[in-house]
Fold these 2 entries.
Entry 1:
Amino acid sequence: MTAPLRKALRDVWQERTRTALVVLAIALGIAGLTAGLSSYAILVRELNRGYLETEPASAILRTDFVDDASLKEVRAIPEVKAAEPRRVLNGRIKAGPGQWRSLVLFVVQDFSGIRVSKLVPQAGAWPPAAGEILIERDAMQVAHAKVGDLVTVRTARGQDVSLRLSGTVKDVGQAQARMENLVYGYVTLATLSQLGETLVLDQLHLLVAQDGFNEAHVRGVAEQVKGVLEARGHLVKRLDVPAPVKHPHADLMSLLLLVMASFALFVLLLSGALVLNLMTALMASQVRQIGVMKAVGGSRAQIARIYFAQALVLGIAAIAVAVGPGLWGGRAICRAMAVFLNFDLASFAVPLWVFACIGLTGLLAPLLSAAWPVWKGTKVTVREALTDYGVSRNSFGTSASDRRLAGVGGLARPVLLALRNALRRRMRVALTMVTLALGGLFFMTALNLRASMIGTLDALFSTMKFDLSVSLSEMASAEQVERAVRATPSIARAEGWIATEGSFPAPAGGERFPVFAMPPKTQMLQLNIVSGRDFQPGDTNALIASSALAAKYRQLQAGKSVRLRMGPVVQEWQVIGIARQPFSPAVAYISRAYLDEAGGHAGMSNSLRIAVRDGDVEGARAGLDKSLEAEGLRALTSNSKADSRTSFDQHMLMIYVVLIVLSCIIGGVGGLGLMTTMSLNVLERRREMGVLRALGATPRVVWLLVVAEGTVICLASWEAAALLSWPLSRGLGRGLVLHAFRSGMDFTFEASGLAVWLLVSLLLAVLGSFVPAWNATRVTVREALAYE
Amino acid sequence: MISLQRVSKDYATPAGRFPALREIDLTIVAGEFATIVGRSGSGKSTLLNLIGGLDTASSGTIDVGGAAVHGMSEAQLSSWRGRKVGFVFQFFQLLPTLTAIENVMLPMDFARLLPPRQRRPRALELLARTGIAGQADKLPSALSGGQQQRVAISRALANDPELLLADEPTGNLDSETARAVLGLLRGLGKTVVIATHERDLKADRTIEMADGRVVR
């Protein structure tokens, strides 16, 4: 090992405490990057593998029914690898005397021969026998049941039937049941018969033989199949081609992981500021040594290499520290994501490119951060380096701003000293402040976003004047509904709506969205009209689009007319207004007058909005079930406003938990930065502290001076964060929500965030300065005065 | 060996331009043991720095061993110094994180005149020559002033330079150690130029300076 390399290593060792702080900061960034990249690599691979292994359907056709002859003909098409009939029903499920839960029931013709959208048995029986039901593994928690239990299932046309929960399956293609608050159940045709439903399978799941990743090809094959079915007299109501080879939530997962990896890079950038501070201080303290090395023949490049080697050591140490925890974190993320997206991880193997990226970034980050101080530090001439200038040209007091600061008075001398000391190394302090301020900014932004989301959701839910939303299995007359409502004492008032689906004919659209027909003077929904007007009595073919629907289809503007398909009918509708409904799916509201008059559904409804008495939602729900039964009606789903709100909150929770965690990490890096800065400040001013002590300052006074200096930095960063958090939260919140939900957000500033971050800043100030301050007081006056 | 013609050096100071050297003409022949004497601020250290390429002249020409020092870039000066000149400083200026022998090997690592395997034996030989081989693996902080200066002399000889420049090499040593160090320098058989306050130092030639000029 050459002498320059030895010097590099020993210098790092000599500065081990500060080096450790900087290494820790870089390690935080690298660990985050490792976690982000490794989880990205694992999840993308495993999600696709897990998803593709189930042979997801290339296309799904919804028809009246699938008969054997048609199925045989479809299977004979060479481009069709597999075709299987299925049925999906909505219903309810209850375990024991518990509460009814929404059920999505999949009917499979032959469990032992599934070739499309495969199910993976997890526990219990496989295949299920007649009278048995399998439940998706994640939905078991929603169902509040265990294998072996008897559950009651109710479908639209059938009666309540007790089925044995005989096992669990994994269905990768479904969204997380807990998040959706749904139970996914799987039964045979025999069980369907027991449920009292007609023995009809009305969906055809297709798997194309080749070129399954080519959406145009898949659509072509599906159209061919559709032609076969139609030629046999079947009505094909809908043809869906999911995005090929992509899990339905793959994009969301990639976005989340991208955000995380970007954040890790950002942390790495901030830790680069610490490297910059450390190297600047190191170069300043080594001026004379640099001069000597130049005097004995070292060129600038040779000397710069010594210091770059030190920066490299920081990177290597940080990588060594970070990779383990990073990989561990990556695994934790993978596990959480696997639960979230409901798939299994077969391997945690991290590909080599991830390690290459981490190595490269981990080594380059400190090298790049060190470039400027090293290059500047090695520029010094031998004469400058070896000459004692006394008070240097760059000392405090030589600039106009210093002199202005020196003019600040009216404070106690120690406070003035702390204030001026804090601003002596402006670049160092600025970088430290930036890291601390960013931590505060993230934290306050997270709180503001949370408050804004809650405020916006409060406003949204306040427009809903009902407590319970009930969908019926079929159309009911006004009299039937009225009688059922009257017979339920917990109901204060109710309104009958018609819920259906609509779409805009091609080329404008094609995607279906819910359409609600409601009375023009509805008491149950107070739409927040942002453009145009609300319904008025006399409106017939009037339509109000939710903001999400209007954002999706630009032709939806107040005053314009659109052609809307509902069922087989395409009708001209007048868009009279746009209703703001943040965080909500695309929905259209129409006046039910048209359906009453032209649609032949006068006074009928299949969807009820109910306001309850004294908040007795459960009483109303249970009572209405019975009352409807007495009228020969059946509630298919029954969702309370509180349930919907909980589901919303669950989705939002993730966003601000992530933001708070991220702000804590940045705050941590800021704290490390402050500690590094304060220790460098103390080191450089050791002689001054000796002078202070010689002049009579007690160790306690010196300690307080250092802590006060740290406090000044923290308070300044808090102020910067406080000033910036308002516009940032507003802009970020609006941008995020607009991107994710196609609607704006009501901004709320969380004032408590300011106070909390002020406390955190003060705490960081004390923690960050404590060790350097303590070290400063341990040095004897003689040592301090002799320090060079 | 050393030839200076009309060499001047000015420094810009907050108080205005300060002439440190004025129109110096000087020649020192190879193998000479010369001292530059004068009071503080007379310009002796500046003269030594210009000869060794530690600083650049404002005007004039400096030729050392056939090399036109005044025309060299900073990088060329570093390389030239490493091969041709050895420096000894008043405060020894050893690198604190390197041991004595590593300090001596440092110029060899920079100049790369010797293969890596031969550097340690040579450094040990030089330390032995200055009588300090026994302390080779100690850090400077563990050495006395005299020992540190011996290491510094060994380091100055690392690349076998033609010229040795010493700025107050005994200024920080007691008289007995100072005598020993000077004896060591005198016995090297190289061109040695020493800037010193001590006018009675025995030398082949004494150059006296005052107010930036050679007065004798």
Entry 2:
Amino acid sequence: MSVLAIILGIFTGVSVALFIVSDLLKRSNDLGNSEAKIYDFTDSYVHFSCRMNRVNKNEFYF
Amino acid sequence: MDNGIPHMKYNAAGQGVTLHCPGCAAALVYDPVSGKMLCESCGSTYTTAELEYENRYRVDEDDVMECNVYTCRSCGAELNVSDNTCSTFCAFCGQPTVVFDRVATMKKPQLIIPFEVTKEQAVAHLRVKVNDGKFVPKEVKEFSIDRVSGIYVPFWLFDMDYSDKQLLSGEVKSGKSTYTYYYYREGETNFSNMTLDASRQLNDESSRRLEPYTTQALRPFKADYLSGFYADRYDVDSYELQGSAVRRAAELFNREIELDVETTGAKKVKIIRHDPKFQINGVKYAMLPAWFLTFRYKDVPYTMLVNGQTGKIVGGLPYEKTPLILLFTLIFAIVAPIAAFIYNVVDLDDGKRLLGLMIAGSAIAFAKAVKNLKDVEKSRRLSSEADIANYSKNR
């Protein structure tokens, strides 16, 4: 087995293990870690008066 | 001095009221379950109209109230209270007594959300959450509460119109290439009763996590609601929080714009230029309820907060490292050899995509893991800080 494969294998192992453990720890011990959203303070979300996609950025100066 | 209504007791200045039961003369407390004043001795309940005491408070104007030095009406003790305390229990006899502080004239709260979650419910909710925690130490699962305080926390509620026009950039993947596109959005929104905590003693992070409160439940302020609970006066003026209010509105607004652009398939959305406008239409002073529950673990006090309206629990629990290390080692022992085997056998030319995905996925997993651990440690630190323990202790 090549050295690079071993190193990458260790990296993947550490990342996956750390992710799973940290995710379980967060669900278990970090309570109520969320804040209010926009709809908690408004009757509706944002009223859009204009929506344009894939525009030329040089046409918009303000 | 008696004003003729048998259950009312006043000092010579007409201040410092203990509400007494007409039936048995024991002290009355506000009951969140029934929304009435409750006698814990004989079980009778009364509405404020029945007690007819609200008009006994001396007020110079509609939006201010006059405050005097506090003396316990039940046992006569003089209590040393913080300058910001509006109501407290007597430290000597434990009777609930409405208190006004030393400032001669101060702004009366306009609105209040009364407690809907009782102390017993708050403790029960916390016990369920703690027992469900996989990495919570056994001693914490069997915790005994050091102190439970129901506190009305002062908030400023902002009404604000916010609008912006934004030019944004976003990245779109097409095959192996990534393209940058530009998007234009113009919109507005009206914020109503946006909450900002008005107490310097309670850190902003904790108060924001307590949210959201259902502001439809806001009622005109009546001092009755304070009875049986602690309350703090604001010590941050609304004008000091205007900048924070605008920043918060901008954060919420910008997040919605970002989500809207992401629906087109774009990632890494950023604002290139924008022209925000805002107008603050009004600011109201309100009291919002929260339970502060403190327990000790390894001689360190941990204070968990419970939203007194919704029951949302906020805080970081301590954790044991041994089960974490064991679980980490087990998962690593399984995943690492399999991954190394795949990296070794997959041909670099044919399996480039798979290898790329595995390495990128590992990097993302690692970054998320680091963020998770930072969040957990930050929460645990917030709950164990002296400030938050003292916020409920100094009552």
